[in-house]
């Protein structure tokens, strides 16, 4: 019952600020509510406060005792949703599949998957030495086991 109430309150909060979206909702047996959000334009402290207030002010502590934590997805967190990939277009990602790990620029996103571009050094087709080639890969979401934004300094 608490789960349904919280989900409905979060939907209302995201309707009020439609640039925000839910990444994860977890409610433990002792009513510790943990909400992780993300936003198309990032997430500010005020965004977390607004979502927290929306939930906390509409639940009755007399009815059920609870604790609430609202946080944003950290930079080291993996990408899960198409919307997260979309907001990171043009950025460098580290993507892991069952077969390989790729560091590449995210160039396209759609409902089926992503497109990555990168340069690689490969042996020349004729002769000795290596040359640089432009690589491109289209990956369906089902083949991605982990994807993280790479932070470069």
From TrEMBL:
Its main location: cytoplasm. Keywords: Cytoplasm, Ribosome biogenesis. Residues 18-75 form the Ribosome maturation factor RimP N-terminal domain. InterPro entries: Ribosome_maturation_RimP, RimP_N, RimP_N_sf. It is found in: Cytoplasm. The keyword Cytoplasm applies. GO terms for biological process: ribosomal small subunit biogenesis. One of its GO terms (cellular component) is cytoplasm. It comes from the Bacteria. Pfam families: RimP_N. The keyword Cytoplasm applies. Belongs to the RimP family. HAMAP family: RimP. Required for maturation of 30S ribosomal subunits. This is Ribosome maturation factor RimP. It comes from Salegentibacter holothuriorum.
């Amino acid at each position: 019952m608490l789960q349904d109430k919280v989900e409905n309150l979060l939907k209302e909060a995201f309707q009020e600020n439609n640039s925000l979206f839910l990444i994860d909702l977890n409610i433990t047996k002792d009513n510790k509510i943990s909400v992780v959000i993300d936003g198309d334009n990032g997430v500010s402290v005020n965004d977390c406060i607004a979502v927290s207030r929306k939930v906390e002010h509409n639940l009755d502590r007399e009815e059920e005792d609870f604790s609430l934590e609202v946080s944003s997805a950290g930079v080291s967190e993996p990408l899960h949703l198409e919307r997260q990939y979309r907001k990171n277009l043009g950025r460098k990602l580290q993507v892991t599949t069952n077969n390989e790990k790729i560091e590449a620029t995210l160039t396209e996103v759609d409902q089926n998957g992503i497109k990555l571009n990168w340069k690689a050094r490969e042996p020349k087709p004729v002769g000795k030495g290596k040359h640089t080639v432009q690589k491109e890969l289209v990956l369906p979401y089902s083949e991605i086991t982990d994807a993280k934004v790479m932070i470069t300094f």
